Amino acid sequence: MDLNNLTIKKFHKGLLGKQFSAFEIAKAFFDYIEEKDSEIGAYLQLTKDLALLRANKVDIELAEGKKMEILTGVPLAIKDNILIENEPATAASKILANYRASYDAIVIKKLKKNNAVFLGKTNLDEFAMGSSTENSAFKITRNPIDLERVPGGSSGGSAAAVAADMAVAALGSDTGGSIRQPASFCGVVGLKPTYGAVSRFGLIAMASSLDQIGPIAKTVEDAAILFKEISGRDKLDSTSRDIEYGDELLNPKLENVRKLRIGIPKEYFIEGLDKQVSEAINLAIDSLKSLKIEFKEISLPHTKHALSCYYIIMPAEVSANLARFDGIRYGQTSDVNGKMSLKDIYLKTRGEGFGEEVKRRIILGTFVLSSGYYDAYYAKAQKVRQLIKQDFDEAFAEIDVILTPVSPTAAFKIGEKIDDPLKMYLGDIFTIPANLADLPAVSIPVKKTGGLPIGFQLIGKPFREADILGIGQFYEKL
Ligand code: GLN
């Protein structure tokens, strides 16, 4: 069975055409993962029993002549900060090493309704904090294209699983680039939806005003399919919205896509941008010009403040969200004999359970929120966030979509940046603004011959995923 380049679309056709059964495919994936994942390390745990049970159910329903939804039987990988009932959910942290989810995330509920199959939970930077997946408490993940390099992060396991054909598609989460940057590094497609397009209920929170769950897939079309199925209003997430994503999401029309004007922000083509990246971005622009799409230079003047703004707001929210891991309510406790004082339980459990990067951000976050510093840092960062949003609002009066690089470099070497947090943070410069401004953004691999994969980013107006995915789908067909 050829799992290479198996897309959602191809799987669906094959299943309906009885070229294979859902069970056979799931089994083939597990055999392949067993062989391949020892060198890559994309998965933290496989959910084999659940997957085979669900695949079997699909085959029975198919034989009974039940209607098969587009995701029915599709083998997916799920980032390990998204809850699947009764399965482990570690967020790649020691503090949750023995935790099992007691309920399904809403995205999982939706996928279960569709009869999708979950192969396993994928590796990430601890609590999604990082850009290389090297911050996982359990293991590193290697880039399938070059095993000496990182797959990006924090959704590095999901991106690597899809790139290495160890899943048809995957879910990741994106707070400051964690879907788009690993997608770019691994040569796959990654979509961060508009804030509020997808329910966050059942996602282990990092920074709640920035987090979104989104798809990682082999094609833009697959990303659109998966996005459509997981989006929508959910009463358990009051920030989620009901948007009717119509037919244009999956069947964009060229005449409509041609009407979209693309802006190129000059602030994104800066010193420090790798030559291979700028060359790749120019290739993508040239291809899109051949579709007769209009381009225009624009300015997003507050871009230079995005990184510092993010690295204040994000840790502030991290410090609040991670307060719940206290050795009493969730997961691991250091109080093995039940004799420790409350304070010692907190200190010891958190001291032993969290990794270095997580601690760094909790300390930063409590600092910027503390009395005396709140106004100088946190309140100011909130104002800057507004200015960054305004930049986009003003730009979107003239253009419809913004094209930028995803990351200043292609995948870097394992170990290259791990001892220098600032250097690691700087790499997030192009992905962070879309989170701060709540906007949808997709990373699409540039078509080129040779070299490491490099993605370009399309940022859209709020809830206009159809625009960026529409352009992407035509780019793919070129
Ligand atoms: N790399 C960014 C960070 O370290 C983004 C993480 C994310 O999107 N979850 O915060």
UniProtKB/TrEMBL annotation:
<dbReference type="GO" id="GO:0006412">
    <property type="term" value="P:translation"/>
</dbReference>
<keyword id="KW-0067">ATP-binding</keyword>
<comment type="function">
    <text>Allows the formation of correctly charged Gln-tRNA(Gln) through the transamidation of misacylated Glu-tRNA(Gln) in organisms which lack glutaminyl-tRNA synthetase. The reaction takes place in the presence of glutamine and ATP through an activated gamma-phospho-Glu-tRNA(Gln).</text>
</comment>
<dbReference type="InterPro" id="IPR020556">
    <property type="entry name" value="Amidase_CS"/>
</dbReference>
<keyword id="KW-0808">Transferase</keyword>
<keyword id="KW-0436">Ligase</keyword>
<protein>
    <recommendedName>
        <fullName>Glutamyl-tRNA(Gln) amidotransferase subunit A</fullName>
        <ecNumber>6.3.5.7</ecNumber>
    </recommendedName>
</protein>
<comment type="similarity">
    <text>Belongs to the amidase family. GatA subfamily.</text>
</comment>
<dbReference type="InterPro" id="IPR000120">
    <property type="entry name" value="Amidase"/>
</dbReference>
<dbReference type="Pfam" id="PF01425">
    <property type="entry name" value="Amidase"/>
</dbReference>
<keyword id="KW-0547">Nucleotide-binding</keyword>
<feature type="active site" description="Acyl-ester intermediate">
    <location>
        <position position="178"/>
    </location>
</feature>
<feature type="active site" description="Charge relay system">
    <location>
        <position position="79"/>
    </location>
</feature>
<dbReference type="GO" id="GO:0030956">
    <property type="term" value="C:glutamyl-tRNA(Gln) amidotransferase complex"/>
</dbReference>
<dbReference type="GO" id="GO:0016740">
    <property type="term" value="F:transferase activity"/>
</dbReference>
<keyword id="KW-0648">Protein biosynthesis</keyword>
<dbReference type="InterPro" id="IPR023631">
    <property type="entry name" value="Amidase_dom"/>
</dbReference>
<comment type="subunit">
    <text>Heterotrimer of A, B and C subunits.</text>
</comment>
<dbReference type="GO" id="GO:0050567">
    <property type="term" value="F:glutaminyl-tRNA synthase (glutamine-hydrolyzing) activity"/>
</dbReference>
<dbReference type="GO" id="GO:0005524">
    <property type="term" value="F:ATP binding"/>
</dbReference>
<feature type="domain" description="Amidase">
    <location>
        <begin position="24"/>
        <end position="469"/>
    </location>
</feature>
<dbReference type="InterPro" id="IPR036928">
    <property type="entry name" value="AS_sf"/>
</dbReference>
<feature type="active site" description="Charge relay system">
    <location>
        <position position="154"/>
    </location>
</feature>
<dbReference type="InterPro" id="IPR004412">
    <property type="entry name" value="GatA"/>
</dbReference>
